[in-house]
Amino acid sequence: MPEDFRRLFGPEGPLAKRLEGFQPRSGQAAMAEAVASAIENLDCLIVEAGTGTGKTLAYLVPALLSGRKLLISTGTKALQEQLFDKDLPVARAALDLPVRVALLKGRANYLCLHRLDLAQQQGRARPPAQLSQLRRIREWSVRTHSGDLAEIGDIADGSPIWPQVSSTADNCLGSECPRLADCHPLRARRQALEADVVVVNHHLFFADLAVKQGGFGELLPQADAVILDEAHQVPEIASLFFSTGLSARQLDDLARDIRAEYAVTGSDTPELELCLRENEAAIRHLDQVLGPQPTRAAWSAALESAEAAQALERLRAKLADLETQLEALAPRTLGLASCYLRCKACIERLDSLVAGSRGVVRWVEKFAQGFALNATPLDIAGRFRQLMEAHPAAWIFTSATLAVKQGFEHFSARLGLEEPRTLVLDSPFDYRRNALLYIPRGLPDPAAPDYTQAVVQAALPLIHASEGGAFLLCTSHRALQEAAALLRPQLGSLPLLVQGESGRGELLARFRAAGNAVLIGTSSFWEGVDVRGTALRLVIIDKLPFGSPGEPVLQARLEALREQGEDPFRSHQLPQAVIALKQGAGRLIRDATDRGVLMLCDPRLLSRPYGKTFLGSLPPMPLSHDLQRACDFFRQQAVA
Fold it and tell me: To 5 degrees, how large is the angle CA 323–CA 324–CA 330?
């Protein structure tokens, strides 16, 4: 097998013939060997593959050659589509294998014909913009084969029409649906069941596991090998799907669906409409009591006032009234019966949240409009391990950022992985020649009120020396807004792009096209962003990305670790921050010919002992504290 992979990934192999500019990389062949062995022996394998290793083909090639049933999950729908549309066809063609593949998304990504019919029956009550969008969807619905709503490119992602023409696990009528024969989500699932390789995203993967665990069946086919790419996201996403929650949006959707389903009957029940209005008033009242500012808070802090407790009790009472109304109406239509069961489930969820349970942290998230009540388990290791044991297969976890100083103890502990096989593959890129790590001296403590101002002043000479082409990655939205206000008047002709002023895709397209722009972003730009070439040559990170101490789930998790006698900083906060910093730093060098400077502004890298842990986890690049040397890096590049 090792010899086979050296040939497959060698200069005369099928991949080299299929891919223009293919470069043999020893790490890619080594990863392929490890993946092949794990699949053959049904092992658990963790692989950190540094940027440029070619990890996608390194797992696709042995996985396809194994002839096993494969389930591949990645971090986002965009990465899922890239894997399906680009990487899989290349690997399949290079190996000349007649492998059947399927792309499966969550049901909310597909058109629901039954709900489209309901939406049309309510047509006259809609704003003109929604009526136009509904006509556009109806015209498309007779042409589409997949029913994938992504095919419609001229309706905004946030349009309120989307949830009205798609289904969720809550409102799907299942086998009782009158449009079952033409169901797009069901057709997509059948194709996945028949395929050799199924490509999903982490949210669908864990949603399916949660449904399966609840005894409602499963969306995804059984697999001989499960490959989780971008695996650094897995612990948090798994925690999300092992959580219990109830949101204002869920309750609003229920009310909208009740009205749509009841309209079909042609009857008039003033009591139901009054009950719906009272429910909506109770939702809005609790929303107002929780305050106007978006925030996350512990349950006790958010709902500690008598007014908040009364608002919660009022919501519970109004939901109970609605349940009584729906119980009487349920026999009229399948849709109303479904709404009755959903209302009953919302009450049960609310009661569970109010009661709480051991090992779970309750918290409240407030949005600009709406709220979510949540209960999240502090430790998912046992539950995840049980799921793996109930699903015997090869389990392969891979990402560019999983290890802390070459070790996987933190990642393994969070998922309950016992004695996994591990592999660390360094990036093949020449960081020593093509990159420089610049850490300025003399910046104030990150908690100082003038810290962001000091960061901007320290970064400006480097931004001008690089002539733009810079990312400034911030650890908070407050710092982002302050940095944008400070930078705007000092950039001259350099374009400034700020997260939130446009969508991420549009900002990146403008950044690449400009070649000299400065982009300021927070968490969504720390990972999953790939800008190759000279457009990005400077990455500035304002602070070490420690989790916010006020974040309620983190607070509770740290307290639980203290009670167990562990040091929460060493066992959780530090490794989480190291992995996050590696993600941000990884934006700089994306190709063998890329060159650039990574500027880390946090003085704790030099003043605190844990700074060595961060620095020891970054790619090996020269370190300088000399601003002139950092500026000269760009001048030398221009001369070259």
Answer: 75
Which residues contact residue 292 at a Cβ distance below 8 angstroms, ignoring those fewer than 6 apart?
368
Tell me the pTM.
0.89
Indicate the burial class of 449 (C-beta count within 10 angstroms; 0-12, 13-18, 19 or more).
exposed
Scanning the structure block, which residue is given the tokens 């602070």?
543
User: Which residues, 6 or more positions from 635, have their beta carbon under 8 angstroms from its beta carbon?
Assistant: 465
Distance CA 547, CA 570 (A): 13
Total Cβ atoms within 10 A of residue 81: 17
Measured CA distances, 94 to 71, 463, 483 (Å): 20, 43, 48
Query: 195 and 102 in contact (C-beta within 8 Å)?
Result: yes
Distances in Å between the alpha carbon of 484 and those of 308, 472, 490, 502, 509?
A: 36, 10, 10, 14, 19
Query: Per-residue pLDDT tens for 335-378?
Result: 899 999 999 999 999 999 999 888 899 999 999 889 999 999 98
Do β-strands 101-103 and 225-228 pair in parallel, antiparallel, or remain unpaired? unpaired
Under 8 Å between Cβ of 631 and 461: yes
The residue type found at 347 is I
Q: What is the DSSP string of 570-585?
A: IIIIHHHHHHHHHHHH
8 A C-beta contact, residue 402 and residue 587 = no
Q: Which residue has the tokens 């062995």?
A: 37
Q: Is residue 483 scored above 60 in pLDDT? A: yes
Residue 453 · residue 80 · CB < 8 Å: no
Element holding 209 (H helix, E strand): helix 202-213
Contact 514, 467 (CB under 8 A): no
Q: How many CB atoms lie within 10 A of CB 217?
A: 9
In the chain, what percentage of residues exceed pLDDT 70? 96
Separation of alpha carbons 110 and 215, rounded Å: 24
pLDDT in tens, 94-125: 999 999 999 999 888 999 999 999 888 876 66
* 102 beta partners: 198
Identify residue 172 by its one-letter amino acid code: C
Q: Which two tokens stand for residue 231?
A: 């695996």
Q: What is the pLDDT of residue 590?
A: 92
